[in-house]
Amino acid sequence: MAFLFWDFLRQKMTELFIVAAERSGDELGAALIHALNKSQSELSITGIGGQSMAEAGVPSQMDINGLNILGFVEALKNYAFVLRKVRKSTDIILKSSPDAVILIDSWGFMVRVAERLKASGFKGKIIKYVAPQVWAMRSGRSKILARSVDMLLSIQPMDAPYFERHGLKTIYVGNPVFDTDFSSEQGERIKTKFKLESRPLLSVWFGSRPSEIITIAADLKQTILTLKEAFPNLVVCIPVVESIKNHLAPYIAELKQVEGIHIIDEADKLAVMAASTAALACSGTVTSQLAAFGVPTVVAYRLNALTYFVAKKIFKPNHISIVNIAAERELMPEFVQSDVTPPILSKAVSEYLESAKARDLASQALLAQTRLMGAGSGQKASEKAAQAILAAL
């Protein structure tokens, strides 16, 4: 009797399977899970992801460690590993047989999952959340995605034409980066903790992928030491992502011994942003968040030499940060490849530490641009995404 009851209940519920393969996707997945649970109670959500999704009530059915891969060369080196994970994840999804699977970001991995699901006769809807940036490079990926999934949830307003021309239903839900509470009050706890009344705070963001640590961490470390020597009163906070803690350990070991340099848990990252006088960041999602807080930020990025050579040939925009790309000008100074050196980076950061006028001009420009991009606009992207998913079913 009990079996029949649960079987009946299962038939009444909508079953979703959410897949995230790296940290940023995991956070998007967690926000989506919360929004879905608020929208409709009769849902069964399972998935593959990380800590954030687990904390949202969806523990991962597969270990995603090692899938946060960036770059052509790095992808080739890990190709066999990725294919094994593709096979394993699709087998788990097919066994679960959900009404829909939501594949978040991570273009290379997710398109292979989608293709294998289609080839295996999967009957549910396949929904991609976050489009590959075809407006920046490799526009041919729009056609590949259109034949691999049933619907696209876009976070950039320029995405839709590239995919709709191939018949893929595309819904713009807004950028989830700007769903965050960007109020400056969040920083009061950090200001009190580190006695920042008369001391500037520099936050440094090393990135969230092992490949980024390999290419950039040594230069960021030396830049911090150079700035501490020039500004003895400077407080430095370094929030560390759990997924790269072991990779970063050799670089921060020396920094931890210096007075005024603090290694911060990732959970406090928004409070650190809100309290920052200036920031030095590896290019990524964090730069958009810093911009929404109005933090004057210097951006640094370096790729494997071969990956950079290929990317330079096909990358269309003149900038690498989304905020700069959207503004079509450099609101955040960017330094790439050979320009990522301690003297160059420390000079750029010093300009913000020394000049209140420079900080104010940068902050106002960043706040204005991120408001145009949706920061503080009302309904969250995750809520719009949840509504689109449920409507599609």
Q: Can you give a write-up of this model?
A:
- The chain is α/β, with parallel strands linked by helices.
- It is built from 18 helices and twelve strands.
- It has helices spanning 2-12, 23-39, 51-55, 72-77, 79-96, 107-119, 141-148, 160-164, 188-193, 210-230, 245-255, 269-275, 285-292, 305-314, 322-327, 342-354, 356-372, 381-392, and strands at 14-20, 43-48, 100-104, 125-129, 151-154, 169-172, 201-205, 235-240, 261-265, 278-282, 297-301, 334-336.
- It has a six-stranded parallel sheet, sandwiched between helices.
- β10, α13 (285-292) and β11 form a beta-alpha-beta unit.
- α2 (23-39) crosses α18 (381-392), α5 (79-96) packs across α6 (107-119) and α16 crosses α17.
- It is globular.
β-strand amount = 15-25%
DSSP, total strands: 12
Give the spatial strand order of the biggest sheet.
2-1-3-4-5-6
Q: What is the helix content? A: 40-55%
Q: Give start-end ranges of low-pLDDT stretches.
A: none
Mean pLDDT: 87
Structural class: alpha/beta
> What count of helical segments does DSSP give?
18
Secondary structure: elements and pairs:
Layout: H1 2-12, E1 14-20, H2 23-39, E2 43-48, H3 51-55, H4 72-77, H5 79-96, E3 100-104, H6 107-119, E4 125-129, H7 141-148, E5 151-154, H8 160-164, E6 169-172, H9 188-193, E7 201-205, H10 210-230, E8 235-240, H11 245-255, E9 261-265, H12 269-275, E10 278-282, H13 285-292, E11 297-301, H14 305-314, H15 322-327, E12 334-336, H16 342-354, H17 356-372, H18 381-392
Parallel strand pairs: 1-2, 1-3, 3-4, 4-5, 5-6, 7-8, 7-10, 8-9, 10-11, 11-12
